[in-house]
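Researcher: Final request for today, and then I'll write up notes for the group meeting. The sequence and the SMILES for flavin-adenine dinucleotide follow.
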Amino acid sequence: MTQHHQFDAIIVGAGGAGLMAALHASKATNVAVISKLYPTRSHTGTAQGGIAAALANMEEDHWEWHMYDTVKGGDYLVDQDAAEILARDAIDSIIELEHMGLPFDRTPEGRIEQRRFGGHTAEFGARPVMRACKSADRTGHMILQTLYQNCIKQQVRFFDEFFVVDILVEDNVCRGVVAIEINSGEVHVFHAKATLIAAGGFGRIFSVTSNAHSLTGDPVASAFRRGLPLEDMEFFQFHPTGIYRMGILLSEAARGEGGVFLNDKGERFMERYAPTLKDLAPRDMASRFIYQEVKEGRGIGGKDYVYLDIRPDSINRYKSAPGGRMVTAHELEAKLPDIIEMMRVYMGVEPMTEPVPIQPTAHYAMGGIPTDNDGQVLYDAKTKVVGLYAAGECACVSVHGANRLGTNSLVDLVVFGRRGGKAVAEFCQTADFAPLPPDPEAEIVAELERIRTTEGTERGAIIRDEMQKIMMDNVGVFRTAEMMQAALTKVRELKDRFTLIKIDDKGKRYNTDLLETFELGCLLDLAEVTAAAALRRNESRGAHYRDDYPARDDDNWLKHSLAYRATGSSATVAKGYLRFGERPVVITKFEPKERKY
Ligand SMILES: Cc1cc2nc3c(=O)[nH]c(=O)nc-3n(C[C@H](O)[C@H](O)[C@H](O)COP(=O)(O)OP(=O)(O)OC[C@H]3O[C@@H](n4cnc5c(N)ncnc54)[C@H](O)[C@@H]3O)c2cc1C
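Model: Predicted protein-flavin-adenine dinucleotide complex:
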């Protein structure tokens, strides 16, 4: 039996973006948050290093410098009006979090302590600056807990462990969502005036990733299946410091505190590539230079990894800590407790006396559901979707352009989560409920039944492995037309095989077999769009680096891409062709220049 609910506003996702939006929307309207995970298990809780804001608590800093770094870090594909909002509003959103009770680290004088992070500079690139506010290396955990507690205090309604399987968009108007209650397998239709998607990233399209198992982008794929565009999907960030082979993240905070990269010769190679910022160059560059060292035979033992060195002796010898000051093991243990623990537990390495093997890991989706600066979803450069909003990693505002700077995602969540929440509340004051289509759940329920009952020959785990491997090998840090075409062909073949999947669990309750297979279908759609958008962009910019087009080409490619499915709307895996549209980049203060660090 389908159950029906009606709320003014529905928020899909209970990470930092969803909770911030819920908190602000719930001040003026009735809101329900739907999350496939228990809220505090959302990936925001794993964010380690920090959240950027030009508070200038440690040294001189200005929001204009933060804005400039964001624009330059994004290789000038950033919409500068959005970057200005990000950098300006970062300051009071940190204060807002502080007032909600977030336990930031403090200076001896009691102000919020800050540290260095990649690509963040003073005086428009002159030197690194301490801009990242933090709670040791558990910043995201503190943000998530604080926001969740405040939502509970405000009596926001939560539907925990409800899995959204379809977004009801018709004629450019969103009417709500369809969800499965995981525990019972029951179908629930949520009818809403406004829906805000805050479903996080989809790093699980790659084999080596820092992203949690749940980061499969289902609502992003649902939006796409329903005919909405996905923007700038060719830009996926590889973070330079994943634990070798496992992909588990070691935060850039390690380098913010003075850690350095070493190659097989014991050389601090980043000095050659980025003489000013060195090891704190942006992630796209650091990842590329690591592979460059590997390609030229200077990986450790000739293999495909290098070292991250946070030994206090090394940091002191290189004078790589902020201000060249001396550090102690005790101090590093206090500032980086979790990542030091991870190095010990997962690698069996003692980071105070040994360097740690690292390798780039798929980390962050710069692309996603296109929105305006208030979170409202765009159908194209001119048309907006009524009643549909998005915020956080699944959205593309675009504030990160072709490459996101470290600590800028957490700011994005709180700044644009808040703006989205306010916009939703305002919309709900005057809007009416748009009518639901007849049998809104019929199509997706039929698809789930098909997956549950097919006696096919294919296994989801095998298709997933093959997709992740080809995406990692062929649409990763270095790309060529040939590689990307091969990936696209393979993903399309996997989509055909997906229709023949057989699952073992035929039950209704807690059928993770079924839901993981549904997630795989979503990943296949997103992998296809990523490969196709990358193949189309004949230039190198930010995280999209092509050996066959190594230069940035502003004359032809200083624009956002919008990918659409070419075959109308449905609730199931998108079969058929893609079509592409474009959107201009908003440039206000900083003309595109060559990126040097
Ligand atoms: C290991 C790691 C460390 C990081 N460190 C930093 C850092 O130090 N600083 C920084 O700025 N950024 C960092 N990032 C990036 C940043 O943490 C993420 O981009 C950000 O937290 C994403 O937040 P979000 O609210 O968009 O989504 P998430 O926190 O990922 O939450 C997604 C939500 O969507 C829900 N959801 C998804 N699909 C469905 C569905 N089908 N139905 C219902 N609900 C659904 C989930 O239940 C979840 O609640 C890090 C990322 C990782 C992986």
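Model: The mean pLDDT is 96. The chain has 17 helices and 20 strands.
Researcher: Thanks, that's everything.
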